[in-house]
Each structure stands twice: as C-alpha cells, then as structure tokens.
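Good morning C.,

I know you're traveling, so I'll keep this short. The sequence:
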Amino acid sequence: LKDFMYELVQLDDSKLTANIRVDVNLWRRQQLTHETFVLNGSDQREWPVFQDLHENLSALGLKLFNEDTVLMELQMEVHVSYEAVDVKAGLGLTGKGTDGHEDVDDDDLTKVPPSVTMRVLSKDRDKGILKDYSANQVYFEVEANHDQIVFLENLTDCMGRKKLSLQILGARHIVMRSRCLFNLPGIRVTVANPRVMCLHSPTKFDPEVISKVIRVGTARHAMASAPGNQLDDEKEEGLESVGMMNKINYRVIHILMPRYRSAVIDIIEEQCFGIVNKSAAIDRLAMSRVLEAEHLDVVAMINRACSYVMLEYLLVKLDFERGKDWELQVQQAFPNLMPVFEQLSEDAFDELNDSEVPLILVREPEEERMETLRAWILRICHVIRTVAFMKQPRLSFQSEAPAKKNTSGEEASSDANIFEALFDDTGARLLARACCASLLNILQQIFSHQEEIEDKWKRWTPAQQNTGHFLKSFVVEKAIFFCPFSVPRDMKKKVRVKLLKFFEEAQCEPTDPLRLVPEMLYHPDVWLRLEALKLSCLLLKDADASLQAAFRTFDSPQLNLQKALAFQFKDFSTKDTHAADESQAVNVMLNKIQNLCEGHNAELQEFVGEDLSIEDKDFSTLLAEYLEKNDDDDEDDQDKNVVKGPTNLVEWICTLARQVIDKMKADQQWQVSMEGSEDKYTLLGQLFDTAAEIVQGPTRSNQRLLLESELLLDVNQLWLRQRIDEFTFRDLLQDNEDLFEPWMNLLRAMRNCEISILKFLLSLLEEEELDADDPNYRQVSEEVIDHKGQTIRRMVEELNSKILCDKVITHWNLSPEVKDPAFLIKPVQDADEVIQNDTAERIVRTKGELESEDYTLEEQQIHCLEICFLCWALYEGVHDTPEFGNRSLFSGTLERKTPNAVLFTRTSWATSKTKIYDTFNEAVSKMHHGKYLHYLFGRIEIIRGQRLQKLFFLVPPAIRHLKGQSLIKDWQVGCVNAVDRSGPEAKLQDFSEQVWDEYIGFVEHQYSLSQKPFPLNASGEVMASSRSMIVLLTSMICCGVALVYDGSYSKTHKMGEYDVHYTKGWYVWLLLGLGIFHFTCALLLTLFHIVAYSQWKIDTGLDQWKEDNPNSHHRLDGIFGPILMLWFFFQDFGLVGKLGLAGVSFLGLHFDFLIYSIHLMYVCAQFETLGKVFEALYITFGQVAGTAVLGFCVQYCFLVLGFLTFSKGYGFADMDTSQCTSLMTCLLAHLDYGFRSGPVWEDGPELTWWRFAFDYLYNLVVILILAAIISGIIIDTFANMRADLQAKNDDQQNNCFVCGINRSQMERKMVKFDHHVFQEHYMWSYARFLMYLKQAKESDLNGPESFVRAKVHVQDYSFYPINRALTLDSDDAEDYSERELRFKDLEEMRGVVRKVSESSQNVLQLKREVKTGVKESRDSLAEMQHRIGLLALDVNKKVQEAQLQKAAAQAAKDKSKE
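The tokens, ready to paste straight into the viewer:
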C-alpha cells in the first residue's frame, strides 16, 4: 500500500506509466452522466459537476486533489423541435392559408410585435427551410462556473441533432441554457445524454499533458461548432461564417443587451425618480432613499418638535421652568447660552400655525409635551421592531447562514423581469421593509448633526460642559434624552413608569433608538441592517462614553451585538459577488465599530476583541468535538490543517481584508478592468481605519490579535496589487478616455487606502501607559516590553522594507514639494537587477490627472505627501527603536499560520536604510538645508508613564506652506530670548504657554495672509524693505540738511522757511522728494504691521478675555465688543511706535526737515549693540525716573531748608541764582543748575558749622549719591543684561532646550549634541506638535497624541522628557529590556536601600568628625614641629657659643702659656 501511494502521489506521468503495476484509470478518469432533459422556451438546467464527482470518488474511498486543474470533456446531443401548426407558427410568424384565414388562432400564441418583420431567403425556400433573422431566434449556450460562456450558437434553423464535445478546465457548475427572443409555447430544446469525462490526478498534470488536451479540445470545439446541413465544399467557408456569427451573438446577448437594459433602467430612474445613478441596472438602495413629500413633511414636523422639547429639557437641566420669562432668567443667569436657546426657539417655530409650539404638540398639555414626544419616539422604535420581524423570522447565529437570496428575500433568478421588479412594491415583505426603512430614516434625521446649532453649542457652552450641566454636543444631548432605557440618567420614577407602561401593556421588552440597533442586526434583510447601522453611526459619532458603554450591555444570548456583527462579516465573506447595499452595509458596520471604539475607549476595544467561541456546550457537542478530533488522525495532512473561522470581530476584520486582497489578486490575473476596484479599495480603507481605531490607545490584546493574524503579510501583497493596478490602469487611459472619471475616483480610493494602512501600522507601535504606583508594575512592564519586542520583530520580518522606502521617494516626487523638477529625487534602482512591478519605478501623472476637477491636483499632492510622511515615520519608528538593535530578540523562529511566507531580516532593513532611506534624507538636505524636513515631518519624544515614546506627526499645512517666513522667525527669536530660564520645568511651561496662546494663532494668521494677493501675502518682506529704506533715507536727509543748511540761532527763525536756510531751490526739491519717499515707507511699515499683527493681537486678546470671563461672552455682541477690540489694537506697542515714527516723518515733511533728526534714534536702534542701549534705558526707565523724582524732592527740601536758615541766597557755578524772588523761581533754578554743582556763596556770612554741614550734605547727597545711583542703575542693568545674555547663550549652546542634558554628558555617551538638538529634541517640532494637537479633530488623534492633548488642556507639561532621551536610554540595546524595569514593588529592596541610606549618613558624620580630628592633629603636629625647630636652633646656638667660649679659653690658655 505504501509503494502504491508513493507512485500515485510522487511520480510524474512518464515514470508512472513506466512503473505502473495497478490499473489507475479508475483513479484518473471518472465519467459523470446526467439524465436527458427538455428545455421549454427560455429555460436552463444547472448541473453541479463537482458534487457528483466528489460523490463518485467518495464511494471509491478516494479524494479529489487540485480542483482547479481537473480536465473535463463535456459531450451531449442537442435537438430543437417546434410543436405548432407549422414551422411559421412555431417561429412566431403570421401566415395565411389558401383560404385566406389565419392558420393559427391569435389566442393560441403570443403575438409578435408589429415592428417585427420577417425575411425569407429565396435560396432557402427551395430547400424547404425557412430562415428568419428578424423574428424569433432560438439559442443554446453552455456556461461554466456562472461566469464563462463556453458555447453559444443560434439553433433556429437546425432541424437535426447537434453534437457537442467541449473541453473545460475545473468547472464546478455547468449550466445548459436555451434562449428565445419571444418565449412562445411549443419550442422545445432536448438535451440528450449529457456526460462529462473528468481527468484528474493527486499531483498537477505535466505541461505536456495540458498542451495535448488543449490541442484535442480545440479540434473538438471546432467540430462542435461546425455548421450543420452544408455540403463538404462549403464546410471551410461555413466554419468561418459560423465562428463570426457566434462572436456576434455572444456580444449582442452578453454585452450589448445588458448594457442596453442598464441604460434604459438608468433613464427611467433619472427621469421618473430623479436618481442620478453611476452604477448600472437597478440601484435598489437609491430607490429606497426616494422619499415622498409627505415623509419629508413628517420629518420636518418631528424635528421642530424635537427642538421645542430639547429647549425645555435644557431649561430643566439648568433648574429653570419654561414660562413667559424664561428668556429673562437665562439672560440673567447664563447670558452666554442665549444664542443656543434662540437658535432652538427659531428651529421650533412652526409657520403652519404661526406659533412657537409645533403643530403636533399643540393639543398636548404643556407640562406633558416633553414626555409625550419621547414616548412617540420610543413607540416608533417598537413599531419598527414589530413590523420588521412580522413577515420574516429573526436570524439564528447558531445555525448556518441561510441560502443565498436576493435582497427581497426570494431566490435570485437571472431571468426575472427586471422592469417589473423596478415598479413592484406590493409584496407583503417589501411593504413591511419599506415602512421600517422610512421610520428608521425618521430616527436618522432626528439624530443627524445640525450645523447651525452644533456650531453655537461648541462656541457658547464650554463653561456648562466643564461644570457638567451640558454634554459635549447637542446631538449627544438628544441621544441621551431619547434613549432612556439604554442610558438612564437621573430619570424620575414617575416618568420611567409612564414610559414603561406602553411596553408592559404590549408585553414586550422596552426599546429605544440605541437598543433598536442590535435588534435590527438580527433581521435577515441586509437593507434594514444597513439602515440600523447608519442610525448607530449617528448615535456614536461624537464618541460619548455613556452611549458607547450602552452597547456593551448587548451581550446576552438573545441579543448579542458581537455575534450579530460577526454574522454580517460571515454573510459577506461567504458570497462571491455582493450587491451595493451589502458592500455599503459592511462599510457602515465597520464605521460603527470604529465609532464604538472612538476616543480610545479601552473597555469597548476589549469588547470588540472578546472571544465569541467561549460558550456553554452540552454533552453532545463535546462528544462530537471529541470524535471529530479522533477522526482527524485518519485524515490526510490537508484535513489536519483546516483553519477554523475567526472567533472575534478583530479576526473577522483581518479575514475580510485578506479575502478582499485575494480577490484583487485573482482579478488581476484574469481581467484588466476597473469595475469593482474602487469599492474594494474603499472597503479596505475602512477596514484598516477600523483596525487602527480598535488598537489605538493602545489596547495590547487587540494589537496582539492583529499581529498574530499575520495581517502584515497581506499588507505587502496589497502594496504590490495597488502598484500593479496603478500602472495597468494608467496604460488603459491612453486608449480609452471614457475611463478617466472612474480612474480618478479609483485613484482617490487608492490613496486613501494607503493612508489608512500606514496609520494602522503606526498604531501597532503605540505603547500603553505604565503606572509606577501599580502593584503589578513589574509584571505589566515585562509584558509591555515583550509585546513591543514581538511587534518590532513581526514588522521587520513581515513588512517589505524596500517597498516602504521606495514609497517615500515615489510619493515625495508626487508631492507639492516637487513643483520644480529640479527637486525630484531619483529612485534607487539596481541596474543589474530587474524586478517585476518594481515599486521604485517613478510614477508620472497623465495630463488628465493634472487637469482633473473631481480629484484636484492639490488634493493628489497632499495625499502623496501624507503617504511619504507615513512611510518615512513608519520606517524610522521601527528601525530606530532599541528593540531593533537587540539581536537576541530575532533569534529562533516564530510559529506562523501562513505557509511558505516570504520573510525579511534586519539586514534587509539596514540595506534599505543605507541605499534608499538615507539617500532620501541626504537629497532633501542637499537641495534645501538640514532642517528642511522639520517644516514637513514632525518627530518628538514624550514621557508617557515611565517609558519614553517617539511620536510622528505631519506638520500642519500653515507651517508647510510658510516654512521659514521672516515674521515667524522674528517671533521665534523673541520667544527664545524672553522665555523663562529659571529651571527646566519653568522654561518648558513658559515656552508651551507662549506657543499655545500666541504662536499658533500668529502662524494661522500669517497663513491666511499668504493665501491673499500681493502685497498682502508678503507683509514681512514689505516691512523689512521699508525699514531698510527708512534707515537709508533718514541718513541721507540728515546728512543733506547738515551740509546745505544755512544760518543758525535767530529770534526771528520760523519753521519751514526754506528760502532763508537753503540757498538753492533744488536742495529743497531734493529733500522734499526724499521726505515724501520717507513718509511713504513709514506709512507702509505701519500699514503692513497692522496687516501682519493687529488682527492676531485682537484675536489673542479676545480669546484670553473669553477665557477669563466665560459667562460674559454675550457682551461682545454690543458696543463693548468694538471698544475691547480697539483697546487690544492699541496695546500693540510695536504699532504705537510705528505710528509715532510715521507721525514724525509727517511733521518733517510738512514743517521742517530738521525734525527728521529724531529718526536717527530709530536708525541707531536697528543696530544690535545700540539696540541694547535703548533696551537698557527702557528696562531702567522706571528706576531712573524714580531716582530723578527723588532728586527733585531732595533739592526741594534743601531749598526750603536754606529759606528757613539762611538770610541770603546762594547760587551755582553755572548761574548765580541767589537773587531769585520767589520759591518757584528758586526751585526752577535748583532743578536746572542744582544737579551740576554745589552751592556758591558770594558775600555771605563767614563759614559756620551749619553752613559747612549744609554744603557738605548737598554735595554728598545731590551731586555724588543721586548721580551715582542713576549711573549705577544703568551700569548694573548693562551688567545684568550681559550676564543674562551670556547665560542664555551658554544654555542654548551647551544644553538641550527640551531635556536639559548638557553637551558634555551627551558626548561622553557618544551622542552628537547638534544631531540631538536639531533632530531628536528640536524645540520647534514640539511647538508645531502643539499646533497640530490644537487644530486636529479629536477623532483623528491616536493614543499618545490624545494623552498629550489632555495634559496640555490642564496645563500639565510633565510629558516633556526632562533629563531623558531615547538615544541616552538605549545606548546598550542588548540589555535594554532589563534596564527599563523599575523594581518599585519590591518592598524588601526599598527597606534595604533605606537602611543603607541611614547608615551612609552615620558614616558621613563619622567621616566629618575624623576629618576634623585629623586636621586638629595636623595643626598640633605642625606647631610641635615648629617648636622643635626653634628648640634645635637654640641648642645649636648654645653649642656654638659653648664651642666659641671653649675655643677662646683655649686660645687664652695657649697665649698665657706663651
């Protein structure tokens, strides 16, 4: 048996024939037979060939392999017969007998239309054969797999049997069909002895076998298509004519007629129903949306009633009662809410009865109107639920899906009368569904966003939202109010009992709009499921947590939201073709799941990822599973590897994405058509948007599910499929311009799909926040680090880094940054290596794409820039992580579900970086400058929890457009100089507040100006040119006046006497011309300052005022608003200075040129050094002025003291003021000359002690001290400014602005300081990130971005990585995971550390004592050494004296002896 299986499975055909030892014909050949049958008129018979083949093989104990390569030969005999009075009647022709009457009664046969005529060929009349090419025609065709016509021929004149022998490959179903132009009675097509010979093998056939079968099949096809009843000499000519005729028949029946039918239907839809349909055939979904005028009137009435009721509901929330004076109450208590209430009152006004109360609520008591309307809405929900399931039962998700049916619930029929279905609305089921759809539409209209009220709600209710009185949007308020059972909120018991009474009487579960959604997902009709999903998307649009949480309650066996959604996935994935409403239903369902998880709701994300296969199973189920498991041991290997279906919604998303990608791959192999491609890319885009939303935050369990499903491998395939489609369809446009509009729609879908995929991939890199106070901190840290490592590994091994980097350059070349061809970056391609469908190949836009109005060039360029950024960010986000450098992380082999998966390595990623990624960065830097990419792509690091995370963002459009605009640069320089540098935290907080309050608004204002015509879009350049011209003209005028001015001081001098002071007239004209030019420049400088700054200053001031006065916004609508704006206008001191500059220029021009000398101060201020002088004077102005006032007061005191104590006055060195006659004149003299010298006495009394003290004190206090104080203030200011400047420069040059780490510290760890400051922690990237957060929609933010935004809103700037940086934290990637763990939960370790700390304090104290003792000992020792030295000197001296005395005595003794 073992040898037999080896030969059958492993040996090829030639070896099998040579070594055959058993009869294998039974194994390789199977003949299938079908009974003879008759087709009456237009009819068909389907033969499930594979089903019969499987049954025959199963009876022999065999199994079918390689189903796609089963070779088949289909044989049959076909005979056409006419059961009528004569041949003419059978063909539907009218003829008269010899008696002149009709041969056949008109009532017996279907009448042929009068427009149909007949033509009888004379040559055929002689043979007794009647041919008619304009009346009835009988065709026979054979179709394989419901999509391939393998035989089609007109058998109208074929009176004998037609033998067919057709060769088919892998046909699972064979349909034999007859077609009649007029379906008249009596036409019969007999199909005799249909049989199929199947050739199959456990292995694929050799190419020789396939080619032989094709040759034989071609010959037999030709014989089957040969014309009958022709002479031999006419056979060859007949073959050609019949072949051509069959092609014409196929084109008419299967191409032209469906097009004609679709065109007629489209005309009817457009003319009768006003539907402009872009899709062929009946658009049932669009037909269902055609609403009658009465329906629209009902919607309008209910909306008015809702506005009326919601106004009352909001008043109740504010503790007001609706009465005649409710407006006065609101005006006094909450004046800022008046615009909202006025809008609601306006919306509620009913013109039909000219009343503030809507007509449908007029008859209701005023106190019951609110609850009455709510009860009506709840009853509408009950009616929808009841009527929807009245004619059709609920779906049972435990059983298999029902048989495929059309949207009307009946078996699909390809030959149904499509025009009859177009107008058919009388069926009971269809009528019920139409009613439910209309009521669902009413609910959708109730919960739709109304722009006017939502805008006012967003503008005027933030204060009430912060206090909890109001919710985040008006539609959320409505949803909470009308869904009392799903989201109960402080509902009174009396009200609840009243609402429940109706449902108790009806003996059913209470329902509301939110609960109705999962109920309707149990309906078998996809149309109603679609409408219910639309309603849920409206309810969840604003991501309200309470509404989202309400859907979590639908997890019971009777009402399980997850299983209902999973069934929709399964129903969609098991069908080969999908109707428009089915595709739209899946799109809307994915949008619902996305909205369900919006706002990074972790609980809802986990709810979506819950395992649906975990259920209570009875004994029979467990026994069946056990037996099935044991039977697997006897099955073949392919049976053992059967993959079970998805067990949760996350896996269903992956499965559906994989199926769509596989379908795209199959379509590319068999056809080159855009049909359906846009829908596939749109669906994929929504799939990946939903996948991104269910993991953002992030939710680690869902991230793991998506990674383990190996969706990344499918992403590679999708990138290749998209690339093939893009080049293939562009080639099609060259030959067919009619495809241009579908191509642009498809291109937009492609770009959006790419963006969704890349955002999804980036969301997989998100890390969850670690709480250091969590008792399980160590365990969670290990899990997070392990998960991040596995994520990086899967991305490295499963994503093609070359495609990723190629897309960076490819889409850069299509972005708005390459409007000039000089900025193109050449794609990186190996000349020696030819790659099919190379993603590096450059894309060139066609002329139509450049001129498209539907998908404009600007929109295309923005999408391409976003794709370029996302690819750039994804590559860096993977490659630059510490995990990428950890070699041990990539050791071993991961268990994979995909067999023979193409995997990549770290080496391939490193190669892509060197060859492509670095080439892109270097090319951009070379073409522009090193920081150019910062204007486009943002990259920052933040601290989230205990870990550093890197964030990427696309810089806002304003920055991308303005880039290095001069005014923005000036603001940045001012911000850097003015930021508080007292500490790292204070510096970053001050910087962030300036950015949030001023920088963002200023950039937005400059961006709005850039969209205006010249010179408004060049305010900075105009101001800079005006300043330069003012400096030049001021210098020229002042120098000219100094050179030509004649005359000097004169009592008769008057301003403007040019004839007196200027000897030549042209002097005046020249100076006058320069003055006019000077005034023009000053005026331009002032005007463009107003353009560039004033509106921004006013808006900034108003925003600050609104923030400080949240309940006084209404005051801005009156006269107070313009006054406040004028105040902020003149608070711009730069503008006031420029107004003064223009005023001086005006005075110089109209009065005297000498006045221009004042502008010399402005000229000096333009130089940096002299500007510091003015800055010092400005800073010290208050102090100097105060000191001067002090001096005046001191002089006044001295003057009064002199008046009281001296009999004669005194003067000063410059002027004798002793003869002043009054206190005022003496005081003025003191103020004028008293600061220059001390008192001078002429003929006064002799010097006395009092006079001496007076003079001495005056000179000391006034002359010395006050002057010294003033000069000291200025000098100290200069010194402080110099010290501050030095400290600021040192901080800028040696410390990172963001993390505060010193240059030397970085360089010790081999980190380049300049690279770190300008690439990793670039301060203006953080400013642009804050701008991005302020401008972005909350729903567009990922988890880390939402984290930072929440921090900024509460002015918490702890997300800045102070004293931390990824390059410093990850210098040793091998033990990165170990170093990242924090052992905070180890209490014993903390106790040991505490003891060590206490011991260290004792040791330090002992050390200090020992040091003190040692020092004292050293001092004592030194003193002792000094004393010993002195003693030694004394001893030596005494020894020397003794020796001298001894020598003298000896000498005396010797002398005496002599």
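Safe travels,
E.
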